[in-house]
Amino acid sequence: MSKKQKRTEKFLAAMTYGAFIFTFSVLVFIIAFILFKGVPHLKPSLFSLKYTSENVSLMPALISTLIMTAISIAISVPLGVFSAIYLVEYAKRGNKVVNLIRLTTETLSGIPSIIYGLFGLLFFVTYLGWGFSVLAGSFTLSIMILPLIIRSSEEALKAVPDSYREGSFGLGAGKLRTVFRVVLPAAIPGIFAGIILAVGRIVGETAALIYTAGTVAQVPKDLLQSARTLSVHMFALSSEGLHTGEAYATAVVLLILVVVINTVSAMVAKRIGGKA
Amino acid sequence: MNKAKEKIMSIVFLIAALTSIFAVALICLFLIVNGIPAMAKIGLFDFLLGKEWAPSDVPAEYGILPMILGSLYVTAGAVLIGVPIGILSAVFLAFVCPKKLYKKVKPAVDLLAGVPSVVYGFFGMAVLVPITGYSMLTASLLLGIMILPTVIGLAESALRAVPTQYYEGSLALGAGHYKSVFSVVLPAAKSGLLAAVVLGIGRAIGETMAVIMVAGNQARIPHSLFKGVRTLTANIVIEMGYASELHRDALIATGVVLFVFILIINLSFSALKRRSDK
Amino acid sequence: MKKHIPLICLCFIALLLTSCGFGGKGEFKADKEIAVFSREDGSGTRTAFTEIFNIVEMGENGTRKDRTTKEAVIAKQTDVLMSGIASDRYSIGYLSLGSVNKTIKLISIDGVYPTAETVKNGTYAVSRPFIIVTKKEISPATQDFINFMLSKEGQAVAAESYISAVDNAPEFNSSMPSGKVVVAGSSSVTPVMEKLKEAYIEINPNAIIEIQLSDSSSGIQGVIDGTCDIGMSSRHLKDSEKAVLDQHTIALDGIAIVVNKNNPINNLSSEQVKAVFKGEITRWRELIEQG
């Protein structure tokens, strides 16, 4: 190798390493920064069931986050999985409707959350008259995560070998029975991984929620009451500017949630990989 | 009986599949119904090309050119920072990183994607702002960091999709490891990489909560890298809370403009993806 | 090279960490440009501030022009404003007196330093009322909650962090109504409303009080539209709003003009504040020489 070639190699190597080191350091730094700022404020009182102006507990927000996640998932998963079943098992190739569904699903996944927020405000909050409520927030979120669920379910269904289906048909089972008894069970881990990703997206969401679910800091008593998720809680604390430390503590809890979600999804992904 | 069940369920599946079409239609409908009349009332040109945004003045002014430019500049800045670093990091992950290390760092990169945007905003506000101020530069930097996981993820899979023969052939011809990657594999993955860039642009232009915490949000034509800027998304989220009547509709119309941008980006992404799949 | 990756990472992080320490040290250079911080158009604090200092120009036939400099950083969150002023030595901004913390410095206006007393006796003129608005006809629960706010007990709660508005308020006798009261509006009023709610619920556990944080105008609009029962406002009502709504002042709040801790300035005249926020004075030197 000539000297010049060697120099090129070295230069390219340095750039590659440099870029990766930057990426990795930024990540480590963000996490270290949040822990450094937030952990000192992570007191047991932050987990009391009641939010008061003295003790800006994050527990109600955590509970609201769980409620909204559960509702959005409950709406979105059946729709998304059925939709994927249609696309993979029923639709004929090259069908115009299928192309349109693909296109709209892609469009949905590219829409920024603030647009979902606007739409939720216009449709659920105002047009349907639900007001700022858990319900309006959850429905908005469920549309937002729908493309994620559809795509991961689609991939999971596609990954099920055709021999499964042929075997089931061969045994005389109908299409529906094949789908529910044979194909779907085999695809469950993949679908589950998609659901977990969706949960991650919900947990981190703010812009789609402030104008749909509102910002009330208490545990909602019914679904037409307003509530805030953890991310919104962080934003609201910073708006008032009185409890910055607690906002960082909330960030720590959020990060822990994200790490848990990522670990679970990695574990599920590993299991799928191991099987295949 | 079984046949009826089959039939019913296949219809149920079809209906479920139609939800996404229905959702997109509904979103378009509600944005347009609420946004277009405002555009008409303000005047399309005064709205899109007006340089003054002063909604609570009497008479009010609703020009969103500053915000359109703001979004474009900030996104361009984010791409300038995020794309090279992202693609190079993807090269590292795909071709340089030892397997052992890969297993450890890949989840870390995924974690970067999971960090909520408010958290990025706090980071930007407390760490970047004291150095670079509330400015276009800070917003671009922060967004550049935020689009990294998107760019890295897509770029990595695009690079891995290139057949190994390309790389091996180049090595056999006497090129070095890096040279082979950069002058043979990267060009071969061109449309996949481009798709990564386009999706990164989409992420950057749509980001809201982190941007409003670092950008300064001045509603005037941006004129310096070190001065503040307001994006379309910031305009909506900052003022939507108290807007009423025409002001509110003007903000929804701002959303329509953003939506159109996103549609253009999405369509080019789909087109690119189709090309790279072929 | 591969072995050094963790080491390089660490160095890089250390570099970033040290850079965090910048921003607070060194000498104050009066030649520097003033970094003006403002709130978003329509926030009650901004409306009150610009009206008190005549930064808003009211024309004869109802025209209104906010002359706040276009270069002002717009902060939607009080946090963003405070951390901005704390980190930028050449900055100036304004916020509710109740929110000011130790990271930033208060300055006197026309020689009067803002405190609860100077706001209440009117010598510190930069203040605004916290107003609640309702429709003319209201539910018993809403009425009872309002009675509480204007009572001796309610005013004592308000006085903890703001300044009470009603002298010699009567003692509170709850009629113990049940029902839901939705309160919405100004983010400046929200903290004190939270406290009032907590105190009230202790007396009358039958009522459910829901507080929505948004801003003054949407709170008022919400009452008119019927989406909430009580609107919180930190600005005076417009005439069109006065015609259809009832209003009560529940507390007073000073608006503090704040600068960075390293800023040598302690006092500004209202003319100077006006000129700075209109962008007519752009260098600190001009203020220091005048002062």
Helix content of chain A: over 70%
Tell me how many strands of chain A there are: 0
Largest sheet of chain A: none
Number of continuous helical runs of chain A: 9
Q: Proportion of β residues of chain C?
A: 15-25%
Q: How do the helices and strands line up, and which of them pair or pack?
A:
The complex is a heterotrimer of chains A (276), B (278) and C (291).
Chain A: H1 3-38, H2 59-90, H3 96-110, H4 113-127, H5 134-159, H6 162-170, H7 175-203, H8 230-240, H9 244-275
Helix pairs in contact in A: 1-9, 2-5, 2-7, 3-5, 4-5, 5-7, 6-7, 7-9, 8-9
Chain B: H1 2-42, H2 44-49, E1 53-54, E2 61-62, H3 65-96, H4 99-114, H5 117-132, H6 136-161, H7 164-172, H8 177-188, H9 190-206, H10 209-212, H11 232-239, H12 245-277
Antiparallel strand pairs in B: 1-2
Helix pairs in contact in B: 1-12, 3-6, 3-9, 4-6, 5-6, 6-9, 7-8, 9-12, 11-12
Chain C: H1 5-20, E1 35-39, H2 44-52, E2 56-58, E3 64-66, E4 73-75, H3 78-87, E5 91-96, E6 105-106, E7 108-109, H4 116-120, E8 127-135, H5 140-149, H6 152-159, E9 163-164, E10 179-186, H7 190-203, E11 207-214, H8 216-225, E12 230-233, H9 239-244, E13 245-259, E14 267-268, H10 270-278, H11 284-290
Parallel strand pairs in C: 1-4, 1-5, 7-14, 10-11, 10-12
Antiparallel strand pairs in C: 2-3, 5-13, 6-13, 8-12, 8-13, 9-13
Fill in the keyword field for this structure.
A: 276 residues; mainly alpha; MetI-like fold; B: 278 residues; 2 strands
Please explain how this structure is put together:
The complex is a heterotrimer of chains A (276), B (278) and C (291). Chain A is mostly helical and 276 residues long. Chain A has two domains: 3-40; 42-275, MetI-like (MetI-like fold, Orthogonal Bundle), CATH 1.10.3720.10. Chain A is built from nine helices and no strands. In chain A, helix 3 (96-110) packs across helix 5 (134-159), helix 6 packs antiparallel against helix 7 and helix 8 runs antiparallel to helix 9 (244-275). The model of chain A has no long low-confidence stretch (mean pLDDT 89). With 278 residues, chain B is mostly helical. Chain B folds into two domains: 2-54; 65-277, MetI-like (MetI-like fold), CATH 1.10.3720. Chain B is 79% helix and 1% strand. Chain B has a two-stranded antiparallel sheet. In chain B, helix 1 (2-42) packs across helix 12. The longest helix of chain B is centred in the first third of the chain and has 41 residues, at 2-42. By secondary structure, chain C is an alpha/beta fold. In chain C, the strands form three sheets. In chain C, strands 1, 4, 5, 6, 8, 9, 10, 11, 12 and 13 form a ten-stranded mixed sheet that branches. Chain C has a two-stranded antiparallel sheet with strand order 2-3. In chain C, strands 7-14 form a two-stranded parallel ribbon. Chain C is globular, with a radius of gyration of 22 Å. The interface between A and B is large, with 89 and 84 residues.
